[in-house]
Amino acid sequence: MHDSNQSPLASSFVALYTATPHGKPHLPEAELRARYELCEDLACQLMDQAHTLHRTGLHEESVLMAIHAGLAQAQSGLNGREARWVTLRLAELLAWRSPQLTPSA
């Protein structure tokens, strides 16, 4: 059943699960939405931690790189593409310059 009250998924996130630029995601819609909501919520929740780390004197890029290192660990529950997306989304939410992160599988 389609819920018309659901917000649209970010195209940058959908692209993580699409083989071609205009292709169909290779995850079922419900799973894709659940992964997106998890990642979006995580990016929002990490804003306070990022601000706290920044106030200790760390440069914005160092904060984002440290957070990315944590997200890239297997125990985070994210895959490498999602960890990168969350970090870049966090930078966007904070209005910080996005760090140079290598795409990962």
Fold and architecture overview:
55% of the residues lie in helices and 0% in strands. Helix 3 (60-71) packs antiparallel against helix 4 (80-94). The chain has helices at 11-14, 29-55, 60-71, 80-94. It has 4 helices and no strands. With 105 residues, it is mostly helical. The chain starts with 10 loop residues before the first helix and ends in an 11-residue tail after the last helix. The longest helix has 27 residues, at 29-55. The protein has one domain (30-105).
Structural class: mainly alpha
Count of helices? 4
Question: Which overall shape is indicated by the principal axes computed on the Cα atoms?
Answer: elongated
Distance N terminus to C terminus? 31 Å
Query: How would you spell out the order of helices and strands?
Result: HHHH
- Quote the beta fraction: under 5%
Binned, the helix content reads 55-70%
Poorly predicted segments = none
Number of strands: 0
Task: Give the overall pLDDT as a whole number.
Answer: 90
Q: Write down the Rg.
A: 14 Å
Q: State the major sheet.
A: none
Please, how many domains? 1
